[in-house]
Amino acid sequence: MLQRSVEPTQYTSLAFGRRCEEAGISPSTGRTGSCYDNAVTESFFASLETELIDRVRLPTRADAEREVFSYIEGFYNPWRRHSANGQLSPAEYERRHMRAMQDELGERSRAA
Asked: Per residue in 27-53, pLDDT tens?
């Protein structure tokens, strides 16, 4: 779940934490005062705004949903490179991560 901060203190409150736990959601927050708490998320929203929202007209909610989905699944995840991922796209980063995990599991099972 992506949650854009509007009122940062409400997202670090105990009540918010309990509500997230009840819903089975892990909030993405670091320690208080860290400027890196939501850097990747904020970068995503900035990219979405400048690369899609500012460039196309979205007259209906259905149009917006379709275009945002297309942007994320058709461009952002498979192609857009990110400094947070070592200049890999999210999809390529995930593929490499999964391959490394599988290799590690294979090595562990052979060693056992």
From this structure: 665 555 566 667 788 888 999 999 999
CA distances from 23 to 5, 18, 20, 34, 43 (A): 18, 9, 5, 26, 26
Q: Which two tokens stand for residue 33?
A: 């005062």
Is 85 domain-assigned? yes
Contact 29, 12 (CB under 8 A): yes
| CB-CB contact of 5 with 11 (8 Å) | yes
In a domain, 32, yes or no: no
What is the model's pLDDT at position 79? 95
For the whole prediction, is pTM greater than 0.70? no
Quote the tokens at residue 100. Answer: 């490394």
55: domain range? 37-111
When divided into structural domains, the chain yields a total of 1
| Residue 106 within any structural domain of the chain | yes
